Amino acid sequence: MQLPAPISVKWIAHFVQGNILGDATQQATGINEIHQVKNGDISFVDHEKYYKAALQSAATVILINQAFDPPPGKTLILVEDPFRAYNQLVRHFHPFPFPEKLHADDVQIGEGTRIAPQVFIGEHVQIGKNCLIYPNVTIYDHCIIGNNVIIHAGTVIGADAFYYKKRTTPEWKYEKMISCGRVVIEDDVEIGAHCTIDKGVSGDTVIGRGTKIDNLVHIGHDTRIGRACLIAAQVGIAGTVIIEDHVTLWGQVGISKDLTIGREAVVLAQSGVPSSLKGGQTYFGYPAEEARYKRREIAWVKRIPEIWEKVKHL
């Protein structure tokens, strides 16, 4: 998320009640979680497992709960709870205005677009030309929808990311990370009924041009789907997945987080994908493997009783 104007690390430290380690003259231009950071961004780290990755990231300002010598070009702000300090900044710069009307006043809608009754459209939404938006669709704040897009009834675009931090003291609970990203839907996309596409935590969830999505599909935060993909009903895609161009996912495929599905891959129905897949091949099963090998494996598994009967009589 870009800030409306650069802010000084002195202001940040005062706002989150932290101590500056390093260059106190730096300025920040954005707020992003670690998967999305770029130069000028504020990010955070609160676990020793990720200290090195955060310190080596592109972030300029890092909220952190352990003192380190700042790497060149970075400023650290030492705080007791970086996660809460990050959320505090997001709330300040990206406040949530609870909706009180079906269409926000600043919605931009292109020529030829038709919007059915009972469609909710939040603030700062842009919708292109010649789109069809069917009844009971919900489009949250800051979403961008291209030209010639069709969205069927009951679909939700831009709900919050499913992103929580586990707390165990003083009681067991999950604390929500505040989402400030967007959903960007490119031209010529069609989205079926009752789909859910979550906004990015701090960046964009993107549906590429010409992609077609069936009913009851879920797409997690910060996932980027390429051009002309085909996604059948009840597919579930976790967060920060990259699906390259011309990929086909058949019904009830499940894809774990932080993976890449290569260009022109085909994943057959009810397959589970726990790791990245190369493009240009067809996959099946759990864990999803090349279909020709998986089918042979299933054939041999079916022969186990027959083989066992032969072996036990030897």
From TrEMBL:
CDD domains: LbH_LpxD. GO terms for biological process: lipid A biosynthetic process. It comes from Thermoflavifilum thermophilum. The keyword Lipid metabolism applies. This is UDP-3-O-[3-hydroxymyristoyl] glucosamine N-acyltransferase. It holds the Pfam family Hexapep. GO terms for cellular component: membrane. One of its GO terms (molecular function) is N-acyltransferase activity. Residues 29-91 form the UDP-3-O-[3-hydroxymyristoyl] glucosamine N-acyltransferase non-repeat region domain. NCBIfam families: PRK00892.1 (NF002060).
